[in-house]
């Protein structure tokens, strides 16, 4: 090929890539293998959980609760509680789903789940005594409220009071709220059950996906506290889950941020983040991407760090990264993330009220979604026709900023990213 023709051929290929990309009106259909549906960081929001159950088409509801349809695998990315009035209902439903479908439901441990072990340790004597009702817990209640405040969950106490009142149709005392939280972490409590059923990381073999709550990076990959560093993904995941299953005392340090790196813990896949200091998503170092690709991992799905109204895909030719924490979205609904053997598909709703869709095939090299253009990451398409793109970045004060892009603008952005070498 003569150099003079390369720009023309590149332009034609990019035109085809942009023109033919039109996500379907619905998320990807059922492939021959499992379809994974992913939900992250509910943090007690029952409306988002209910929306996900109704619109993911992966569940059926019956007299005995929720069931998972055949052909689906459900992954919950962790952080079930703290910032909404439906925490007990959500945990109970997640536990029931896992017990009913142990091989096709995966529950992950988030920091908002694991930090409740502090309650278990702090009030162990009261729990051992059976959490008696005829005791004034005023001093302990203040200590519990301070714990929630320090954990960025100042409303958790009142949210629990609200949920208990809705269940009993009466006023709830502070003593009752306190006892409810302690009951969660008692040996037969709902959170104790969640700890027994959940894990830190998971590899879904049919779609070659790695799931974790926070992020994976050079310090966290292969690291299991107290053990020699692992070099293979699956052996590391197995060892990490075995270590966490006993809830060792060290797990509290593993799941919290470090003083020297406020807001993150790069040695932890629970409190690590795929973000820069401005909270804009960034890919892990090339060495991690290379390792994941060599291990046969074609995507990583995580939560923990909010990404505005809809999930964010970060795309490389070999490995895709899905950030699915929309706990700060202004919508009272969940985005639907589906993954099959061929593609990642996302459907949702922007705060503007416009429908949102994104689809990225694992084998595709020329696709604008998941790419960064002039500091803006292309999220997907908006509107009923899907002929307008939306891009996102984080501004001052961690505020989500959005801009629309025409296919021509996206095409121009792709021209600056790709070279003929990338395409042939």
Please report which band the strand proportion falls in: under 5%, 5-15%, 15-25%, 25-35%, 35-45% or over 45%: 15-25%
> What is the mean pLDDT?
90
Oligomerization category of the chains in this entry: single chain
Task: Bin the helical content.
Answer: 25-40%
Walk me through the structure:
The radius of gyration is 22 Å and the shape is globular. Strands 1, 4, 5, 11, 12, 13, 14, 15, 16 and 17 form a ten-stranded mixed beta sheet that branches. It has a five-stranded mixed beta sheet with strand order 6-7-8-10-9. The chain contains 15 helices and 17 strands. It is α+β, with helices and mostly antiparallel strands.
